[in-house]
Amino acid sequence: MPTPAEPLTLEVITADTVLAITGLAVSPRQEAYVASNAVSLAEAHFNPGAWFRAVCHAGTPVGFVMLFDPTRPGAIASDPVEPTDMVLWRLMIDRRYQRRGYGRQTLDAVRQQIPAMGRFTRLLSSCIPGPDSPEGFYLSYGFTKTGRFWERGTEAEIALDLT
Known about the structure:
Layout: E1 8-11, H1 18-22, H2 37-45, E2 50-57, E3 60-68, E4 85-93, H3 102-117, E5 122-127, H4 135-141, E6 144-150, E7 155-161
């Protein structure tokens, strides 16, 4: 088991690691709030705006993160976003590794990646409301509700100021 002192990294998913990443899963009660990694990878394959990585701790895959960059040529946005908005499309930490700080560390690592991708001033995401929603996690990190909704009104938009 990795120790907490070892750094979390965002790694390119390869043919050698894809099965480990698609094998990661949230708890059954969380499944309604985030797509599986297999679905996310399939969506990324067909959308040039997708940027995705395995979340690893000391070489062990513990999760998955995917961003949407609306400035990439051919990017297909499902909801309207500004060119200065990066979107946190997916973030999941495997049920076995939750409550260890990996979600926050993943967001920290993502925030370090974003400046190299362009001139983004906000990180947007959305949450489905419910008892096992990740909304509380995002709000405690610093995201705020914008009052807008995505996915035909089913997901509340949240934003994190990057300036």
